[in-house]
Amino acid sequence: MSESIYLLTICLPLGAAVLIFGMKYFSAAFAARARAESDAAYSALAEKAVQAQAAHQATLAAMQAELAKLSGSVASVEKILKQVE
């Protein structure tokens, strides 16, 4: 058996093992990076949702105040109309 074939039969399995572990490492690193980006996007989405909820709460409070004011006005108009009859 020649020396080059002997070295090739030893190096190919070792190279395959190194290649497999390298691919496994890069796959894990890519998954971790994707998970970190996903978590950051989720945090940004949650922050936007909280801001939107606060804005909706403020709008709802303003609408309720306006409705109470209008209800008072309608009650006074009804009272005046009852007095006129």
How would you describe this protein?
- Keywords: Membrane, Transmembrane, Transmembrane helix.
- By secondary structure, the protein is mainly α.
- It is built from one helix and no strands.
- The mean pLDDT is 93.
Instruction: Tell me the Rg in angstroms.
Output: 36 Å
The coarse overall form would be rod-shaped
What is the end-to-end distance?
A: 122 Å
- Assess the beta-strand content as a share of residues: under 5%
Averaged pLDDT, please? 93
Number of strands: 0
Order of helices and strands: H
Q: How many helical elements? A: 1
Low-confidence stretches: none
Helix percent reads over 70%
Oligomer: single chain
Structural class: mainly alpha
Largest sheet: none
Transmembrane segments: 6-26
Keywords: Membrane, Transmembrane, Transmembrane helix
List keywords for this structure.
85 residues; mainly alpha; 96% helix; 0% strand; transmembrane helix; membrane; transmembrane
Summarize the entry for a quick read:
This protein is mostly helical. It has one helix at residues 3-84. Helix content is 96%, strand content 0%.
